[in-house]
Write a structure and sequence with these properties.
The complex is a heterodimer of chains A (about 290) and B (about 120). In chain A, about 35% of the residues lie in helices and about 25% in strands. Chain A has about 290 residues and is α/β, with parallel strands linked by helices. Chain A folds into two domains: about 1-60 and about 120-285, Rossmann fold, CATH 3.40.50; about 65-110, Alpha-Beta Plaits (2-Layer Sandwich). In chain A, helix 1 packs across helix 11 and helix 5 (about 145-155) runs parallel beside helix 6 (about 175-180). Chain A is elongated. Chain A starts with a strand and ends with a helix. By secondary structure, chain B is α/β, with parallel strands linked by helices. Helices cover about 30% and strands about 20% of the residues of chain B. Chain B has helices at about 40-45, 50-60, 75-80, 95-105, and strands spanning about 1-5, 25-30, 35-40, 65-70, 85-90. In chain B, strands 3-2-1-4-5 form a five-stranded mixed beta sheet, sandwiched between helices. The longest helix of chain B is centred in the middle third of the chain and has 11 residues, at about 50-60. The chains are: A alpha/beta (about 290), B alpha/beta (about 120). The interface of A and B includes residues 77 and 83 of A.
Chain lengths: ~290, ~120
């Protein structure tokens, strides 16, 4: 059972909810793994404080050109969508940091002048925080391509038990890569015009991928009714509303999990934990 | 000698475009004959990334000796240098004026990029 905790807007409480939910499920003796797919700035580890047991590099194949074999035909530059190759009058230059590792240039080169060499763009780390399994991806500093790292993270997650994927914010490629193929997307939003605008975009992406989604409204007692009105009109399931609380913000700022240190917070997440377990049982029956 | 000048328009009277990779036009000028050709750089303007690299490869393909522009980033500079094209930055005014200046020997090539990538 894979549950992605996503949002359109950043800073709505994805990590607080994802770590809290994962912790709660593990504390109930359910086999659970927390997976940080926000590889550009993974921060779940700050709250879960896992021990890392394994670490594996993630690399993408980038072209290396044998200038002896190259005839400067220019086909590699024509096919490259990412401007990672420069075909000069007398040679071809490679800019590895722009390469997405698609392999197109290698395929079209009629001279066999291109070989692929691995380039490390990040790392996948595995470990545990008590009973909770832990996986995170980290994009190397200065790198721009999060998607290959997320793909490697998803390959590293266990097939058994409940998997909580902490998604990056937004609706672009890293989010699509994270939520693709999950069983349920829980979208965390806030009742503000920004929250609503980005929620609409994220719901659009989720629907396009044919996934089911439920909404958590965080800081539900601030802002306006726009998000709730939208959810009603669109028939979206609002599964949980979490009121604003200064003590939650204080716990977060100290690197604590509100589910552990703020009285009453765990009780609020029970609904969500219950829904995850119900869906897991249903999935097992099928 | 052939040179490329980044330009906001397709004319010799157009202003020099301060950007290289995302310049609106490249005006390729033959300084001996005064003949010129304007190249639309719409592809570069629209590019997500690597605009400077492709612009560099493109102007190098015209066999120019110099590129005259406002600013040039590291990838574009590397590509131009590799292709044997010298880069002159901080050029302002019109394309025509820039051509006159280089003919009079009043411009000297840069030895490095003068801005970071994705400069706007």
């Amino acid at each position: 059972m894979k549950v992605a905790i996503a949002s359109g807007k950043g800073g709505t409480g994805k990590t607080t909810l994802a770590t809290g939910l994962a912790h709660l499920l593990a504390a109930k003796d359910h086999l659970t793994t927390y997976v940080d797919c926000d590889v550009e700035e993974p921060n779940g580890h700050i709250f879960l404080r896992p021990g890392i047991e394994r670490s594996e590099d993630v690399s993408i194949p980038v072209p290396a050109i044998d200038q002896e074999l190259c005839t400067n035909c220019g086909r590699c530059c024509e096919i490259c969508r990412f401007n990672a190759l420069a075909c000069l009058p007398e040679k071809v230059m490679v800019f590895p940091s722009l390469c997405h590792g698609c392999g197109g240039c290698t395929l079209v080169c009629p001279e066999g002048a291109i070989t692929e060499v691995p380039r490390v763009v990040g790392v996948v780390e595995r470990g545990s925080a008590g009973e909770l399994g832990f996986v995170q991806g980290r994009l190397a500093v200065g790198e721009a391509m999060a998607t290959p790292v997320i793909r490697a993270v998803k390959k590293a997650i266990p097939t058994e038990g409940v998997v909580i994927l902490d998604a990056p914010p937004g609706t672009s490629c890293p989010v699509v890569e994270t939520i693709r193929g999950v069983d349920w997307v829980v979208m965390v939003t806030e009742p503000t015009p920004f929250g609503l605008n980005d929620l609409k975009l994220a719901v659009g992406a989720v629907r396009k991928l044919g996934l089911t989604t439920s909404i958590v409204i965080n800081r539900s007692d601030v802002g306006n009714s726009g998000v709730e009105d939208y959810c009603r009109e669109e028939g979206l399931d609002v599964i949980l509303k979490i009121p604003h609380s200064r003590s939650v913000a204080e716990a977060y700022a100290r690197g604590e999990m509100p589910v552990v240190t703020v009285p009453g917070y765990a009780d609020m997440l029970e609904t969500l934990a219950g829904a995850v377990l119900t869906r897991t049982r249903e999935a097992e029956k099928r | 000698m052939k040179i490329a000048v980044t330009s906001r328009g397709p004319e010799m009277a157009s202003d020099v475009d301060p950007r290289f990779g995302r310049a609106k036009w490249f005006v390729i000028v033959d300084t001996e004959t005064g003949e010129f050709e304007a190249i639309d750089n719409e592809k570069g303007v629209e590019a997500g990334s690597g605009a400077g690299i492709q612009a560099a490869a493109r102007v190098a393909g015209f066999g120019v000796e110099y590129v005259l522009t406002g600013h040039c980033g590291p990838n574009a500079f590397r590509t131009l240098t590799e292709a044997g094209v010298k880069v002159i930055t901080s050029v302002t005014g019109t394309v025509e004026g820039a051509v006159e200046k280089i003919k009079l020997g009043g411009l000297s090539p840069s030895d490095a990029a003068d801005v970071n990538g994705h400069w706007t």
